[in-house]
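Throughout this chapter, every protein is written as a compact record of paired, labelled lines. The reader may check this reading against the record printed directly beneath this paragraph:
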Amino acid sequence: MHLKIAQVIFHAVTVVITWAVLLTTLPNVSGAHSDHTTEIDLSNHPFEAHSKAPLHGEWWFHFGQRLQPQEAAKAAAANEMSTIHVPSDWQETVPRDEANPHAHGYGTYVLKLTLPYSRSTPLAISFPRVADAYEVYWVPAVDLSTAARIGGSGAMEGPISAAHHSQDYPLDQVGEGFLVVQIRKELQSYGGILRIPFIADMASIQSGAHLKHIVEGALIGITLFVTVLNLFLFFVYRKDPATLLLALVSFAFLIRSVLLAGVLEVIFGPDIRPLRIRIEYADILLIAWAGYALQQALIWRQISELGGPLVTGVIAMLGGAIVLTAPLPFVTDHLSTVQVYCFAIFGLILWTSAKAIYDRIPDAWFYTLGWFVPLLAGVNDIIVSNTYHGVYLVNYAFVLFICAYSLKVGRRVTHAISRAEVLDQERTGLLQLHQDAQNAASRDPLTGLLNRKAFDSELSLAWREKDFSDQGISLVLFDIDHLQIVNDTYGHPAGDDVLRSVAGLVQASNLRRADRVCRYGGEEFVMILPDTSCDNARVVAERMRNRIAALATDCTGNVSLRVTASFGIACADPNSDLDPTELLMRADEALDHAKSTGRNRSVTYAQALEETAEPPSDDIKAAS
């Protein structure tokens, strides 16, 4: 079923692209036409009802030297001129000349026109698009020796300066006369009157111009908002490349909207027209390529198949380089090549979409149908650009397209962010549970210090690192003096209070991050001091001993107790032959010596050996 659907979509796209290619490659229909005459009578046209009078049809035409308005009107009145269809490109009608392949030069159009002899509303004539420069004259039929200039745009002499698009001029003339339009073409391959001129009441033309500016401003504003929105979504959630590509498509379309609105000409003047045309063509290539890459990211959630976007991207870059550097007539003469590239891209997009539908990718139908909006609008615009009739729809289609896709991608990103937050919370909870489990396995439940099992692991780790230190490693084993008497006299809860109090004091001491304090068993504690000499270890032990001696513990039973502790210190130099078990035994022997020689002492293993070799003094005997 899905395979059949994909085949139907593929065949439909093939038909659309075929017709589009034919429309772009067939020559324009021009020359003599029998549908219209070279005279238009508007004497009874209802201009008061805001009705426009289009001036399409057959006009007298002369290509070559620039005719004076009176001379052109006399030649037209005598029917001594050939005709051309308006609107059309005169390049397709004049004889081919290898020295002038794009038919650059002057063209003169003449139309016999009858205007109302009396009217209550002022009229204006509008020229939506004339390339490159032009002037408009009125020659009254009653006196072909006089001519009145109606208006014009661009430079007819000297360095070429392009005309502004969509210019309107007051039309004060009445009765019969000849409308003469002189055109100078040098910038582009196409030339002549390329959109239908029309006459309408001044108020209608002005309101239409205002409405056009409002629509253009709205398109630019919406596109700018969508561009910023998608950039924001990309910075918030960079895992989805569709947001960045959609922002790129929106930005490229924003450039197109600004160009078509004539903003550059308003800011920099009409001399910017050649560059504007180049940017417009290059921007079309960018929109097409970015749209293809966007479709890959939308459907597959990543640009997984780099072959298609890479090849088409290289073609677009080469095409853009040619557009920006080649002579402008060559560029404009190959607009059909740009159009074919765009439809090839649309074909790839829809083929990818059909494949996604066949593979049952989520939202494939939505993304597939969404592309038909700009696709059909593109077909319409190609028809309009080749027949010079109709309304361009790509701008409006792309606004709908990027808004709909931005909404869809925004919801997708929002869902992904919410899902990521949930996963982060679950991951944090699992990590906390794992940490709690590790703490329960490695911590002493009474004091919160590392237990005996954790001590063995920490000592093994520190021992492996001692050979890379400057001072080796030290162990400080200490024991709370007479804790059994506390248990027997005040009970085990009081003894537990003392253990917790001493453990809290040790934890709050100013130890290094690498130091470890463990409850070794019963009332015994041990400190692992990496990269610490015996002298420094004794300083630490003495400081700890003095703090414990000064500590008052409020115990169960409403009693306050003070205790002391005895410390045994053992050290191992870097690259020592000792092993961890022997080091621990030495610390234990030093602790036993400290306890047997009066308690509340800090004794190193070397000191214990020295004192054992000497007879004890009377003071030590009395203390024992």
Q: What stands out?
A: The two ends are 98 Å apart (CA to CA). Residues 1-36, 620-624 have pLDDT under 50 and may be disordered. The longest strand covers residues 105-115.
